[in-house]
Specification:
Keywords: Signal
Number of helices: 2
Organism: Algoriphagus taiwanensis
Signal peptide: 1-19
CATH architecture: Beta Barrel
Protein name: Outer membrane protein beta-barrel domain-containing protein
Strand content: over 45%
Number of domains: 1
Largest sheet: 8 strands, antiparallel, barrel
Shape: elongated
Helix content: 10-25%
Length: 179
């Protein structure tokens, strides 16, 4: 919960610190949908495999974003860890076999290419499903009118059992824009 409060505080400070660009004010908004394919690595500090500590776990992700306002969008974020691992929680070991996560998040677009997001999520895995909170940020580089490459970082706290930091590169494609 403290991480959610830190995110909200950071959000309020940063949104008041940056004024909206005049160019962005003149730009007319239209609702749109964007999809993204993400290649990422997750740092899970408590992870290990057998006797070996596993610090970095590769992952693939997929996002679908709906922009309903020039500053706000909602998204469904999904990712699949490409490795099995175990975490220790108070002396008990929890096995995670290729966990799959889904998280509906809300994005706040501070600048045209920079956003912050937060939301709840669920990690599905055959041994035990976990609930988590996710916060993150993304900065995109426009390649064309409909294509961007973005760098992202996200933090997930999974029921106070374990947490992870995910660093990714997203390939974003706008698939629909209201005319």
């Amino acid at each position: 919960m403290k991480y959610v409060l830190i995110f909200i505080l950071g959000f309020l400070v940063s949104s008041s610190a940056f004024a909206q660009d005049k160019e962005e004010e003149k730009e007319e908004f239209a609702p749109q949908i964007r999809v993204a394919l993400i290649t990422a690595n997750s740092h899970v500090p408590k992870a290990f495999e057998g006797d070996k500590k596993v610090a970095i776990i590769p992952a693939w992700g997929f996002d679908v974003d709906y922009y309903f306002h020039s500053r706000w969008s909602v998204a469904l974020q999904a990712d699949l860890k490409l490795q099995s691992f175990e975490v220790e929680d108070e002396g008990a070991f929890l096995e995670r076999n290729y966990p799959f996560s889904l998280a509906p998040v809300v994005h706040y677009h501070l600048k045209r290419h920079w956003s912050f997001y937060a939301g709840p999520g669920w990690e599905f895995e055959k041994n035990e499903n976990l609930y988590f909170w996710k916060i993150g940020s993304e900065y995109s580089f426009e390649m064309s009118e409909t294509f961007e490459i973005a760098l992202s970082i996200a933090y997930e706290n999974k029921q106070e059992i374990y947490d992870s930091w995910t660093f990714g590169i997203a390939f974003n494609k706008r698939i629909w824009k209201k005319e």
